[in-house]
Design goal:
By secondary structure, this protein is an alpha/beta fold. The protein has 4 helices and 4 strands; from the N terminus they run αβαβααββ. Helix 2 links the parallel strand 1 (24-30) and strand 2. The longest helix is centred in the middle third of the chain and has 10 residues, at 36-45.
Length: 98
């Protein structure tokens, strides 16, 4: 988390004490599993989180989630990272992999 904290500082400036921290535009969660990191961390720091997950059962958990219905989870690719390529024109501010 130390590297992430250097990239994203959720603490608002003193002059903006009543404002929410600024979110980054887009994150990709590589190997998301059932989405614990996505739901507990990444959706709080990004407007949209895309998912790459090779296990169809795990990916379906995210496809069926409230986060997907609400638009916080964007694309869900059911494939391994070895086959995945970022679509043309898509840029990620953070790529999460564990």
């Amino acid at each position: 988390m130390q590297r992430l904290s250097r990239t994203y500082n959720p603490t608002p400036s003193p002059s903006a004490s009543n404002t929410k921290p600024k979110k980054t535009k887009r994150i990709i969660d590589c190997g998301a599993g059932i989405g614990r990191i996505t739901s507990d961390l990444l959706v709080d720091i990004a407007h949209v989180v895309d998912i790459v997950e090779p296990n169809a059962t795990f990916a379906q958990t995210m496809i069926d989630s409230d986060l997907k219905r609400e638009g916080q989870v964007g694309n869900v690719w059911i494939q391994g990272l070895e086959q995945f390529t970022v679509p043309p024109g898509v840029k990620y501010n953070i790529m999460w992999n564990q």
